[in-house]
Design goal:
Two copies of one chain form a homodimer. Chain A has 428 residues and is of the alpha+beta class. Chain A is built from twelve helices and 16 strands. In chain A, the strands form three sheets. In chain A, strands 1, 2, 3, 4, 5, 6, 14, 15 and 16 form a nine-stranded mixed sheet that branches. The longest helix of chain A is centred in the C-terminal third of the chain and has 25 residues, at 403-427.
Chain lengths: 428, 428
């Protein structure tokens, strides 16, 4: 069967599939809440429209499509037998504000392209395939990432229903408004006993493949990440009336802490980002009485990550003390470092070798989080990274990929799936 | 006539007037757009309600009340003759977000209390009195301060009609929605030839009277202030994927600039504040690509202020260069340093001496801007400062004054007006 697929994946066909996958990314880029940019958050009208569009593509690829209890769009392609387990392929369809068009989206389109190839040949594998377009990976709306993949992984937490978005709308109410039953989100979960594994293709979101001159890479694991809501509380006051030495300016405390994040990250070789900053009252002639900011810290191991956070925290507490501010912290999100599964990763490496001729595919540690992190609680995973252009930027409009790389990625992803099928069958 | 007024301002009466003035500040504190706090901005529903309430108090004090073409609430108390000029008393009724209840408001209530005393005795001065509750001093909504007092001073600029608030509503549309004619705001202007001068009572918004143990002070002048809209433009990117050394993090540039403002202000003996800070895209897992922030810088002289700004600017440009960011600046507002008029200030000093027995009233330079700055273009001004509690804080809920100090302020303000009348008459 692998040979038949390779024939189907001849250069011309692969390029056509890649052009179509990228065209679909363009189509979804137009499904946006933001004028002149891309923003598509969980349970929004754009989410519903994106699901409807993705559902059509899933059906075109020979799958039965449905929206699950968490709002993920899913498609199932039958296996050789009716009681066959499933190999899950996927990535996410939600975006950050003013996003690029490939982060998450491209992985779903690659999965659909590969199933479309199987369908075109009437191929049946010893397992069924389920393609999932996860509804929330970025966590923009409710401040909690991976909501869609956690529901599928069976790790959905009912307490999340009380999370509120920036307008005070709770996740519970947003689910109901979207037409979903907040009490039944857990129904989206897959049975671990029926899942062979999870494969995800994704843009690298970094410059390493670009710098190395390689189109594809295999992911060894995903960095552990912690995300905090931090705040400095001081005292508001008149921007003219209060002498400089009398001030308890919350923004200056937060500014010092943000610079400390960078200093520690550079010193410890980890990654730290303050991506949100809000000051109150927030007027040009009022000294900020409160500053709220986020911290995202990631490292190759949980121990390195926690050591970096301890240093950042100490510097923030010191900055607060020096300015008579009160520093508060709240852990918003924690994701332990995860490793991809060896045999699935070998299948991905094999796929890269088949597609590119590269005998020793490059291995990368993902600094970005992915749905695979959540799915790791359900099943073993492996990931394929696709080279980014523009210095590896993502989470912004300049995010880019080359069509030739996407063609190789489709070939590689298909070959990886066939390799899993070949290896898996003898074990059945 | 001065003696008669002093009798009316006996301790008991003054305390009652002060209690009533503070009660009225409490009433207006309830006219707010903010739950659990005070926020009342220009041309808002709360502005309309505050004007209606203040109009009732103006009438109770024997004045004819009306709302002018700029939305200021005004009351006129006739002079001895029909063609008598007017002495203008006033302060503002708008607030910053999460404001205190006395900044501006108390000055209007003191003016109303004093006219109420004149009215109670049927007193007629050689000039009429006009009390104005200015509609916009803080400039919160449209980012341009003193809109109300500029209209009265005859310095209203038609170009301001295109200013937009945070929701994109232009000043033009907001005026129309409030029931005012955007083309006729200039009609609010007083004729300089008919104005004797302007007196304003205001809380100090600083700790100097408190530290000196004095209830009242006379204002020598108002610091020159400049206000800028500043921005750092870098590159958004994934908080995990982009290595620390590849980043062009706009927030870190803005944080460095905010800390530089403090450093320069301390070194140069001026006052500098970053009161606004917004980052975009503004998500925990996205490196900020843009940070917009305000700068308010004030000094005793325009030269000192401009020297401090030049140093701040150089440090901001340097910070931007070090991080490969683009720094942009836009002057939002400039207010030259102004001096109070000598003879009016002597009348205020005389009033303070009469009320407190203090032969040498304390003189203060106002670091905060006031409506008097705008009125300076129309007529000479003088100001009376009232001691603040809580370390002199203002622009926040803890703003406070003592009722005994307010009683002394009403007595002093009345005595100052009577002194102006006595001195002015011989010149007529």
């Amino acid at each position: 069967m692998r040979r038949a697929r390779r024939a189907a994946a001849a250069p011309g066909g692969a390029l056509e599939d890649a052009v179509e996958a990228m065209r679909r990314c363009d189509v979804l880029a137009g499904v946006s809440a933001m004028e002149g940019g891309i923003e598509r958050v969980y349970l929004s009208p754009e989410h519903a429209r994106a699901n409807a569009q993705a559902g059509e593509w899933l059906e075109l690829a020979g799958m039965r499509a449905w929206e699950d209890a968490a709002g993920n769009i899913r498609g199932s392609y039958p296996g050789a037998t009716e009681d066959a387990p499933v190999l899950v392929l996927g990535s996410h369809l939600d975006t950050v504000p003013d996003a690029g068009r490939y982060d998450g989206i491209l992985g779903v389109m690659i999965a659909i392209a590969v199933v479309g190839r199987l369908h075109a040949h009437g191929a049946r594998l010893p397992f069924g395939i389920e393609v999932i377009g996860f509804a929330d990976e970025e966590g923009v709306r409710f401040g909690r990432t991976l909501l869609g993949s956690c529901a599928v992984a069976g790790t959905w937490d009912e307490a999340w229903l009380d999370l509120a978005d920036g307008d005070g709308v709770t996740l519970r109410d947003a689910l109901a408004a979207f037409g979903l039953d907040p009490a039944r989100v857990g129904d989206a979960a897959l049975d671990p006993a029926r899942v062979v594994g999870y494969l995800e293709a994704h843009i690298e979101q970094g410059p390493l493949l670009l710098d190395a001159g390689r189109p594809l890479g295999v992911v060894s694991g995903i960095m552990g990440a912690k995300r905090f809501d931090l705040a400095m509380e001081g005292e508001a006051g008149h921007a003219g009336g209060v002498p400089m030495r009398h001030r308890r300016d919350a923004l200056l405390g937060a500014a010092t802490a943000a610079l400390a994040v960078e200093q520690v990250a550079l010193a410890e070789g980890v990654v730290g980002t303050v991506g949100e900053m809000r000051v109150a009252p927030g007027a040009a002639n009022v000294i900020p009485g409160r500053a709220e900011f986020s911290l995202d810290v990631r490292a190759a191991t949980d121990a390195e990550r926690d050591r970096a956070w301890a240093r950042i925290r100490a510097l923030a507490v010191e900055a607060a003390g020096a300015r008579r501010l009160q520093f508060t912290e709240s852990l918003r999100h924690v994701a332990p470092a995860t490793s991809s599964e060896r045999r699935l990763s070998e299948a991905v490496e094999h796929g890269i070798s088949v597609a590119t001729g590269d005998r020793e595919p490059m291995e990368l540690l993902s600094k970005a989080g992915h749905d695979a992190m959540a799915i790791a609680a359900l099943a073993p995973y492996a990931m394929l990274f696709v080279r980014c252009g523009n210095g590896g930027v993502s989470h912004q409009p300049d995010e880019s990929v080359e069509v030739g790389d996407v063609a190789l990625a489709i070939d590689a992803f298909e070959a990886a799936i066939l390799a899993v099928a070949q290896r898996w069958q003898p074990l059945a």
